[in-house]
Every structure is written in C-alpha cells, then in structure tokens.
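User: quick one, fold this
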Amino acid sequence: MINKLRPCHVCGLLIACAGLLAPLFANAPYGVGICAHAHQYPNEADMEKEYALIREANIRWLRNFPEWRTIQQDNGVYNFANADRVVRSATKAGLSVLGLLAFTPQKLSTHSHVESRIVNTRHKPENLLRAYEFAYTVAKRYENSVQAWEIWNEPDTVIFWRDTVEDYADLLKSMYLGIKDANKEAIVIGCGTGTNFRFIDTVLRETGGQYMDRVSVHPYLYPDAPNEDNLGTTLKKLRALLDSHNPDLGLWITEAGYPTVESGSGVSESEQGNLLQKYIEIAWANSVENVFIYNMRDSGKNSLNKEHRFGIVQNDYTPKESYYILQDFLKKNSGQPSLKPLHDNADRTVIVLENYESGYFLNEKSSFSGYVYNFSNKETTIRLAVETDKTTTIHNASEAIALGAFSRVPFTVDYTSSTATTTFRLQGAGGGRGGRKMVTLAARSPLSILVQPRITDDSFLSVINVKNVLGKTAEFALSIKSEGRLLESMTRGLKPNESMEIVLPALAKPDTILTVYNGIETTHPIIADFPTIVHKTITVDGRDDDWHDVASRFAIYQHSQVKVNPRAWKGMEDLSSIASLAYDSEFLYLRFSVTDNVVEYNSLGSMAWKGDANIEIFFDTDLSDRHINHYNEDDYQIFLTLANEGVVAHYFKNSTILGDQVEGVKATGRRTAGGYFIEAAIPLSVLRLEGDLRGRIIGFNYYIDDSDYMPTREKQACWQGGTGAWSRPSEMTKIRFQ
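Assistant:
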C-alpha cells in the first residue's frame, strides 16, 4: 500500500475531501479505467508495479495491449510474449482488460510497398481474412482474461488511419466476426474517435448499427473544465446519434485527460484530479458506461511537453495529487459497467469495394471492383445484384458467386453513366448489412487543370497546366475566358497523361476554362494568382474594405492543393482561401479570407496546426541560402489562429524566435457566413526586412488547417508545393514587393 497524506483540494464548487462528497454513483453500472503504455516496458516488474498502483487507486479497468504489428510478424508468425505479460500482470492486479487491436503488420498492409513502416501500418490489410484471423486468434487466446476489445485507435485521424471511413467499417466487420467466433461474450467496441459525428454516423450507416456492442469516443476538453454545456451536450448528441441507428448500443469514453504541463494548456496536479472527477461524474450522468483516463504514468519528464504530462503518477511512479483525489472519489462511487453483449445477427457475407474513388468519365465505359467475403466455415453461393438509376447502364448482369469457407471472390462492375453523380446499390444473399453496399460516385473531367504563378525578371505570369487523364489519346477544345471575354482558344490532341502549358500574363485575369470532349462541355473555374506584395497602408480592423484595390492574390481552391487527407475534401465550400499581402514603411500586412463549412476553436500556440481556423504562414526573407534544408534567422513559420470572435492568436518560430510574445504584432478576425476572415500586421523589423523593398523577391507559402468534427487536424491545403515548408525554405515560392 502507499503511505499518503490527503490534503483538501478545492476547485470551484467541487470538493474532493474524504467524507464531504456524497457517494452519488455507489455500486452504479458505471466504471472507470485508465490507459497505460506498460507493454513498452522492458521488464515485467515495472509493469506489475504500475498495475498495482492502478488497482490501489480503485480503478478497475486497464486499456493496454501491444500493437498488432508487434504480435504478428511480417512472416505471419505470432509472438505472444509481450501480450502474455500484459494480460498476466493485469490479471494478477485484479484489473479487467480492454484490448486495443490496431496497426497492421507491414507485409499484410494494402500499402506494403510503402517504405515508411509507420505509414503502411495505418492502412487496412490487403485481405480482410487476415484481420479476421488475427482477431479470432487473440480473442481465443485471452478468452478468460480480456473482457473487451476496441477496434483501432482514432481512425478518424490521418495520424492513425490512412484509408476511408468505409474501409474502417469493413475492417470493423471482419474483426468483430473473428472476436465473436472466439468468444461470444466478449464486448466489441467500434469507432474510437474524438467526437467526430460524421465519422461515427458513416460507420453506423455502413454497419447498420451492428458489428459492435459499444461505441467509443475520446472527447478531450483540456484546459477547459467539463460542464453540461460542453461535455454534457456532446454526450447527449452522441446518444441521440446512436439511438437513430441502434438504441441498444452502449457508449464508452476510452480516452480523456488533462496534462499537468507548465503552459497554457496545462493544469495543476490538484486541478487535474478535480477536473477528472467532475468529467467522470458528468459522463456517468449521461449514461456513459465506462470512462478511461488518459494516462496512468507520465511518458516523459519534460514539464513543458504536454504529451509527457498526462499521467496521474509521475514518470518515476510518484503519485500526483490527482491520484489521491481520484482514489478517494472512486472508493465511494465506482461500480462496474454492464458487459452484456448485444444480440449478434451480423451477416457473414460482406461486400467490400475497391478502386472506385476516382469516379468515372461521362459516356465512357468505366468500372469499379471489389470482393465478396465469406466469414463462415460453410460454403455458400450468392447472387450479386447491382441496381442504379436510369441514366446509367450496367454492362455485366448479376451473377452467381460461389464462396468457399473463409474465402473471398473478386468481382467487377462495368458501367456507363451520362449523369454527374450515380448511386450504385449492391445486394448479396441474406439481406444483412454486410451483404449489401451502397456507393455514390461522381463524374470527373478528362482533363486535370493546375494553375500556378511564375515570377520572371520583370513580371509574373499565370501558367495553366492541362493534362489528359482519360487513359487514351483524345482531342480537346479549350477556351480561356476572363469575365466572359475570350482570351484564347485552341484544339489539341493529347496522349494519355500528356500535358501542355498555356502561359498568360497574370494581369489578363483568366477566371474560366471551358473544355469540350466527346460533345460534353465542362466549365473549370480558375483563380489566377498575383504573387506580389503591394505598397499600401492597411488598417487592421477586421474589415475587408482596405483590400479591394490591392492586386495581390494567393489562392487555395484546387483539389491538387489539398496535401493532407485529400479524400476528405468536399470542394471549395469545404476548404479554400484567398490571401493578399501589402506593406508600408513599418509593417507587412496579411489578409486571409477562408471558406470553411465548419469553424471550430480548438487548438492554440505551438499545437495550432492540429486544430481548426488556423493559417500557417512561411517567409524566407533572404533567398541566398534557400537551398539549405533547415531554418535559420531569416526563415519564419507563423501561426495566425482565430481563437474567438475578434481574437486572433499568433505564434512565431524560427532559429531565434519561439512563442507568442512578439512585440508589435496586430491581428484580428471574425467568422463570416461561409468561413472566417483574418487580418494581421507584422513589424518589418521582426522579419528582418529593411530599406527600400521595391522589387525585392522573398520566399513565401501558406497552409490552411481544417479540423471538422475532430480534436486534431483532418486535412491541410497548401498554396504551393508540398507540406515541408515548416522545415525546408526550399518549399517556399518566390514573390515580389511592388
């Protein structure tokens, strides 16, 4: 046992002193667990030490399990040594176990050819039978010692999952069936997102609310205190969403925490305990069956690193004040969640689609493919029927598909469509959610069009790159217009993947390209950049009127500019931007008008890139060393983040500046009807810009970060190039002071 003193901790109206708090949830069907990373420890003694501390804190559940890729080697051989240690030590400590099944072995991944071992483990296995086999194997081995299994960690983020939501739903189906075949009493938990309602809704729609017993979420709030307006409202909305698909689904929170870090996002040790206690109470009051604290032990000793300081014990196992607060609270209030599985009527015939995301060309024969899986020990035959609308012709009739036990058979659907979008409904035997699939595809242009600026010695140009993506040699008619006025027209024959350049003076202001192929006319709106910094004094007041006559424009609006998670981009209304730059003798002025269909305030400071309503700006004010792939004193990364209405936070980073204490910076912003507006002024002296700037060329780039419905970055769009400007000045583009 631990010898301890229990000081009285007060946080607002929440009192955590022995004897003062009534047992609100004593013996209730609600539990508390904790996340740990003890599977990474080199010896079992440290693991047992940590698990004993967990149980002495009156915490009854452990979320800890080695990654799939470490249990099943690339040669297919299983190594259970580490998993056995985790389960054996947890059982010895009297803990129930939530096992996390995540991260595909490299050789099984759909992206096994990718050199990065981390990236390819974030994809589903190429054959979902391998996922079934792994889930069955571990669930059978630990049938009597692991009570629940969670399928993947935060698959709504590109950090942990690189495939689609639908791909995750297919993986969930295969692992669910494997676990249930091994142990029908095991609880299977799906989703594991932040509070990404769109992701959860899609998974539940794809599965018909089946293939899981519970849904899990990670609704972090730090540094904000939990209350009914934030956490309570979120959980009520989640409950309503679950009820709309399957009212029997339970809800677990499998990560929630507060870091005791010495920064703006941190809290004190006593605040950590009181905030977690209040968080648990609100979660239980909203019928969350089990709440897992993140994390048991600090993962490092850096008091300024948030990721090091989520633990309720320090890195050397010394309990924090929060440990004792939770220990007292849980002694009076903790119960055990229901472990009753839902009725299992999941279909064992599962349709999985492949190679469909690119869409189709109008009036051209197209196809998509997939597999029909049989996750059963019995042979079966199904007839795969494909239905669609009257504007689409299916060229191959429905066919009988014979499936052996635990097998898959490929199929292809050939079709021709004459409409902009087409919905396909695939139906197999049984009528269950696994045995049917619906997908909506969109027509695409046979030409890929990319518009980029080009700086010359005395001017700048608009360069339009046109590429044939049709897959065959074809002739195209093109017309380039500006405000309805024809600038240039031509007819060109292009081979497959052949490109051509059309160069125009940027001041011609091209705004539309009309293309005609096979009698079908397609309109491509374009936004020509003016890569200049115009001499003008701007009043930083959050209004746009000063900028109307500023001929400076840097546009993000093309799919090719979405560099992080481009599949999540739904078009210009989802994420796009127009930026402008101006200057006078004192300041460099920046203006960003961003279109964003969901604006959230959720991350600031050095971590602003993980959140929403954030602009990342990059400058290289001395191009003589731009070939060097690291920052020095003339290279800058700047965050401008809409922190609240009228409030824009800034954060600077280069070799000599780090943080938000940069004197003289002015910034403001506001929400708009379709997104947000940010305006700022940076002293020229901060950027080492001196003297007569007319004609001077510097490096520049900017990114916009988007975080719809999730606590980390969902996607990122870049003005030019890739995503490396934060560390490589060579990825900035030349712009000129006028």
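User: anything notable?
Assistant: The first helix runs from residue 44 to 56.
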